[in-house]
Amino acid sequence: MSAEIGIGAGVVVDGRLLRGTRGFAGELGHVPVRPDGPECACGGRGCLEQYAGEEAVLRAAGLEPGADRVGLLAGRATDGDEDVRRALRDAGEALGMALTGAVNLLDPEGVVLGGALAGLAPWLLPSLRAELARRTAGRACPVSVSRLGPEGPLLGGRALGGAGGCWTIRQGSLRLRRTVETCRERCSSPVRVSELSTTPR
To answer: Above pLDDT 90, what percent of the chain?
Structure first.
């Protein structure tokens, strides 16, 4: 599971990514956690993204979005900013609610936080784990943090894309400079930056 403005998840079954009939499996960000909550861009209300996406957390903490949103939130939380800590605690709770349905439905071996969520794990995990344990049928599902950090989703997508081709990254959607440098170091295919697309070519 990873997040920036939106929140997505990858379901891995027997070592293979579950894509779904239309390729939309893993849209965790549009699972409703509060049915009467704010309207979402998808047309629903109270979606997880409205409570645990980066912009939602910044808004709840009373902060303006900047270039390094995760760094801003982590820095303020480390410094003891109670508004930021409360916003992250509430985001963790919402993540736990959304994950409960997936865990009860799929009974996975574990859940891994990646992307932006990895950098905020110290403040998200306590409420996330508590909510998940409280709502899950049977033994609580373990939740861990990806060692790949914010580059994990991009590197995972590149691995699934196979060799060859060119990866195009939408400018502004990722912590661009470090991510592109990391991908260029680790990926065999060329990487270029675009305003338009995040899809492999």
So the answer is: 41
The DSSP code sequence of the chain is: -EESSSEE--EEETTEEE--SSS-TT-GGGSBSSTTS-B-TTS-BSBTHHHHSHHHHHHHHT----S-HHHHHHHHHHTT-HHHHHHHHHHHHHHHHHHHHHHHHH--S-EEEEEHHHHTHHHHHHHHHHHHHHHSSSSPPPEEE-TTGGGHHHHHHHHHH-SSS-EEEETTSS-HHHHHHHHHHH-SS-EEEESS--SB-
Q: What pLDDT score does 85 carry?
A: 97
pLDDT by residue (tens digit) across 52-78? 988 899 999 999 887 788 889 999 999
Phi-psi region of 23 (alpha: psi -120 to 50; beta: other; left: phi over 0): left
In sequence order, the 6+-apart residues with CB closer than 8 A to the CB of 107 are none
pLDDT in tens, 148-200: 766 666 666 655 555 444 444 444 444 444 444 555 555 554 544 444 333 43
